Amino acid sequence: TIELKSLLETIVRLATTVLHAEIGSIMLLDDDHQFLTIAAAIGLSDEIIKTTKLPIGSSISGHVAATKEPLFVADVNRDERFKKETRSERYGKASLLSVPLMVKNNVIGVINMSKKAGGGDFGQHDLKLLTTFATQAAVAIDNAANFDKLKRRVAELSALHEISDAMSRAGTMELLYDIIFIGVRNLMPIESSLWFRWYRKDSNLVFIGGAGNAKIDLELTIATDSESLEDDDKRRELILASLKQNDSADIPVNSFETVAIRNEAGLAYIFCLGSSVPDSFSREDLKIARLIATQTATMYEREKGILNATRLLTMGNMISEISHDMRKPLTNIRGGLQVIRGRWPEMAEESDLFQMTEEEVHHLNELVRELVDFSNPNKYQTERIDISAIISRVVQLLSRDFEEKKIDVQLNLEEDVPELLVNKNQIMEMYINLLTNAIDATPNGGKITLSSSLAGGREGEAGSKVKLEIIDTGCGISKNDLAVIFDRYYTSKDTGTGLGLAAVERIVAAHGGSIEVKSVENQGSTFRIYLPQ
Q: For 429-469, what is each residue's pLDDT tens digit?
């Protein structure tokens, strides 16, 4: 037979019959060749079969596996080498045989025989017979084990293929959870699955969905830290404890395991497997569950990215056409308002409705200009340039404004900052907007500092960055305003449009960078920008 479980049972049955033994067992090494566990047995209780786990070198079987030599023990309870490690209720008071299962001089397990029928003792002849038997049995076991691994690998590849094929129909994350669950269920006795997402910024593990025959309708958020989630045992106990405290959870947890799923940024998801049957999942099961969940999540994100890119391309083309067509009617409206203001200036000045109309038309015009710029394929053409040269040029352009308010401008530009792949005009626009705001916020005689340096980026960002800072000693930004300064049309100035900082944020994002702001009222503000090298 090539079915491993059936083969092992057959070997034990044949060996005990031939040697007239009442107790027989085959113990196989784990994948790491560290422990022996009972794979098949006759005459042993289910509890012993289930719980026995012997380190190599320990007890009789472990000794045989370590030395690779057959062993005959006349009386297991009197042998000085093993009497402290053996149990009379397991082996009896008579002799015992233990022979290594060898394939190409490698130990794959051990076969044991004890308690000869009729109260007799084993002898050297029995040891030779079992050794010969073990030689043939080891080859059969190795062949069956290899076939079992091959069969499992085929099943794993088939499951991955089926999942990949179903991905094209997974329009939602909920359907994706079902697809993964069905794929994993074909390989192991899983009854339910749970998905958690790790939000590093908030240190929260949040339940986002599940599948299976359990009632999975949870609203569960677990406050934790990344160290606890990296440890397999801590992660499992943390989620289990939270599930048990949740009254709405009806999930089988007699067997409950968790696997961590990572992406380029680090830990991303936790995938949980549940079953009502104890010890349902082997270490091999967890490996394949991790593989399936990781590959499926990756494929889904890739498919979603392609779909989003297609949608964005379509939207970009539509925006380009619509924004271009909007320019003419807006120009006509602005011209009409200018004519009205010229003919009836007093009415225009006194009418709040007229002024509001002018402001909104101006906002619409600026928005259309942004849309046209954004959809222009040449707008974001990049080249490698010296950022210090751009900063110096912008300071020169605004030199008259600095002089009028007697603002002291300091440049701290490090020489080792590499050239950046950017769009020169966009970066200049970014600096002009930021410096114009800094000038407006800084009183006469204040100071503005511009710096550039190499840095590691913001917390949680990967790779080295170039850090650009604009620091002023102005009036600062209130806490309430700080949260909305990048919102379109938000402004604290009487004559502002609220588009300057929104454009800054868009330009930084378009270059793959990030921006942060720190400000104290009546002390000044710091705008810190990180751009990739």
A: 899 889 988 998 898 989 999 999 988 655 545 457 899 99
Mean pLDDT over all residues of the chain?
82
- Distance from C-alpha of 367 to C-alpha of 498, rounded to nearest angstrom: 11
Helix (H) or strand (E) holding 106: strand 106-116
Distances (CA, A) of 435 to 162, 397, 440, 481: 57, 11, 9, 18
The tokens describing 203, both together, are: 């240190």
Q: 106-116 and 192-199 as β-strands: parallel, antiparallel, unpaired?
A: unpaired
- ∠196-264-314 over CA atoms, to 5°? 90
Angle at 84 between CA 82 and CA 89, to 5 degrees: 90
Strands 408-413 and 447-455, by their bridges, are parallel
Pairwise CA distance, residues 129 & 97, whole Å: 11
CA-CA distance, 270 to 207, in Å (whole number)?
A: 9
CA distances from 193 to 3, 114, 170, 178, 498 (A): 29, 44, 17, 9, 48
Distance of CA 451 to CAs 401, 411, 470, 502, 514, Å?
Answer: 20, 6, 7, 22, 16
User: β-pairing, 447-455 with 465-472?
Assistant: antiparallel
Distance CA 22, CA 347 (A): 112
Q: Residue 215 carries which DSSP code?
A: B
CA dist 35 and 52 (Å) reads 10
In this prediction, residue 303 carries a pLDDT of 67
Question: Which residue's structure tokens are 């004519």?
Answer: 339
Distance CA(208)–CA(260), nearest Å, equals 15
Q: Tell me, what's the pLDDT at 128?
A: 92
CA distance 37 to 15: 19
pLDDT tier, 471 (very low <50, low <70, confident <90, very high otherwise): very high
**Average pLDDT of 382-405?**
89
